[in-house]
Structure formats: C-alpha cells, structure tokens
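Readers of this paper often ask what the protein records in our data store actually look like. Nothing more is needed to write down the fold, since each code stands for a local backbone conformation. Below, we set out a record of this kind in full and without editing:
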Amino acid sequence: MKKLFTILGLSLGVLTFAQENDLHVSYSENNFEDVKMEITIDSAEELEATFQVDDIKELLDLTWGQSATFKITCRGELMSNGKPSTMSYEIEKGDMSDKEFIKMVKKIRKAALHYYNK
C-alpha cells in the first residue's frame, strides 16, 4: 500500500510541475475577403419572418468594401421523384455600390414572394 501511495504521489507531482506556464496570448485582426449570404425558404411566410432588407444593410456596413454574394433558394412542392422543386436567385456585388446591391436584394425578395404567391 505504501508503494502505491508513493507511485501516485510521484506521478501527481511530475504531472503538476511538467505543465507549461507560458500563457502567451496574441490577438489578430480578422479580415473578411468574401461574404456570402444564402437563405433557403419553404414559404412566403418564412421569408417575411426571417429576412428583412435592413439585415443585409447592416451586414454590408460590417463588411464595407468587401465582395458580397446574396442568394435565395425557394423550395416548392414535391415532384414525382420525391424531391422538392427549387428555384434560386443569386446576385454578386462586384462593382455595384451598396445602394445598387440593396436595390437588387429588394427585387430578389419581391420575386421570391411572387414565386410563392402565384
């Protein structure tokens, strides 16, 4: 029994003092190169509840000057193969200003609502 306590004590001591005490922490700046926003919806109500154009404006403000892509995927009724039909709208900011990009996002949102309300 004495040998067991000695072995456990030595093991615990070695493990305790063997830990590295260097707590060097470095902070770096995060850079975004490309922002992609993708929304997949099943109904017009879901679109209205989850996505507002102001959300996109806020995101663009956070990623000023970066490339941006926006995509809405609308899932429709089930087809004969058991998979839902889908339709996607996608735009890439490219050389557009933020104002033009928001205008296109509004058009896409309106088209997606029209898809479900037809």
User: Anything to note?
Assistant: Residues 98-117 form the longest helix (20 residues).
